[in-house]
Amino acid sequence: MSPIGNAVLGLVFLALGTVSTFLMFHLWGYPFDEKTYKSEAPPSLMLLHRLIGYVYLAIYLYFLSQMVPRLWEYQIELPARSVAHLTLGMAIGAILLVKISVVRFFKHLESKLVPFLGVGLLICTILLMGLSIPFAFREAYLRAATVNGPISDPQNLGRVREQLLLAGLRDEGDRKRLASPKSLRAGQAILLRECVQCHDLRTVLARPRTPENWRETVTRMAERSNLVKPISEGQQWEVISYLVAITPELQKVAGQRRDEQRRSDASQMAVKGLADRRAISGETTSAPYDPQKGRELFRMRCSLCHPHEVVAKSPPRSESEARELVERMVQNGASATDQEFADIIRYLSDTYAK
Q: Is CB count within 10 Å lower at the N or C end of the chain?
């Protein structure tokens, strides 16, 4: 079942646990014969409570059947949220086992233990779903936001072809094939099917990366998968292509998270230090300026977050404007050396400044 399907089933699981608990409170209001262990509650309500319990148990067993194989395939230490998720899942299983045992075999303990066990189940269910459902819907939103546009946008597909060259893929035919909607959807499927065995999708997509870094990340994941489900080199490139395709969307999400932090003193000092150390202008760089290299750096680095043609629509008209533009790129997460930034500023100044 898809993550969003599991989230919906989780809501049903939570609703059943809640209804079962409050129905239990209602049923325990009826007289109960301690000798015969019989309640005077309406048989229809007793049957309803039992059926809800069976459905709750069936859903729990389904979730358990999904979780156990994933635990076996994990190749790294579990994240903190996964540990909490696992602990609550085991607690629910233990409480269910004790409750069923009391109801079936130790009825003399039923009046003393079952209410507490029922409340314990409800609390664990609420905590478990609270750790799962919001993240599942958030991941579904991320997938929807990063699929419809990036995979079908011709301009973005062209950007992916260029970025794959930066990632080390030299063959033009392979880059064209990988930068196609069909291949990108295949890469997304591999990411959701294989990579989440060791990571939450939120962890994988925590921040945008350069094509080189995406390749390093996917290679590490593939190496860890060798023990269980090897990911071929072709599949790795499909995942890399997909991650490169959605990087602009990830940049937008990351930018939202940085709205407050990027204006902090540390960020401002980092940007100011970049300008002060090198004054990043063509005349002050220690290495000779190569116009062709400046153009390629601009196209490669700036197109990580947006098509490089965007700059031409509103170009900098002076060296200071070019420097301000690059400083904004740094604030938004652009990654390069001081010399590369200097070459980009020189290229922008020579190309657009009047």
A: C
pLDDT in tens, 261-305: 544 444 445 445 555 555 544 444 446 777 888 888 887 777 666
AA letter at 154:
P
112: left (phi > 0), else alpha (psi -120 to 50), else beta? Answer: alpha
The CA distance from 127 to 105, in Å, is 29
29 close to 65: Cβ distance less than 8 angstroms: no
Are 115 and 28 spatial neighbours (Cβ–Cβ below 8 Å)? yes
Last residue in a domain, options 82, 104, 137: 137
Structural domain contains residue 142: no
Q: Looking at 204, 228, 257, which one is the last position of a domain?
A: 257
Residue with the bigger pLDDT between 18 and 202: it is 18
Residue 122 and residue 86 share a domain: yes
The better pLDDT of the pair 227, 314 is held by 314
CA proximity to 124, closest of 157, 158, 149, 89: 89
Q: 116: which 2 tokens?
A: 């507490």
Residues 69 and 120 grouped into a single domain: yes
**What phi, psi does 32 have (nearest 5°)?**
-130, 125
231 alpha-carbon distance from chain centroid: 20
- Terminal-to-terminal C-alpha distance of the chain: 59
3-class DSSP state of 218? helix
Give CB contacts under 8 A, 24+ apart, made by 228-233: 228/72, 228/73, 228/75, 228/197, 229/73, 229/194, 229/197, 231/190, 231/194
Kindly report, residue by residue over 219-269, the tens digit of the pLDDT.
877 776 555 567 788 888 888 888 888 877 666 655 555 555 544 444 445
**What are the residue ranges of helices labelled H in 263-332?**
265-278, 291-302, 309-313, 319-331
* Contact status, residue 248 vs residue 306, Cβ threshold 8 Å: yes
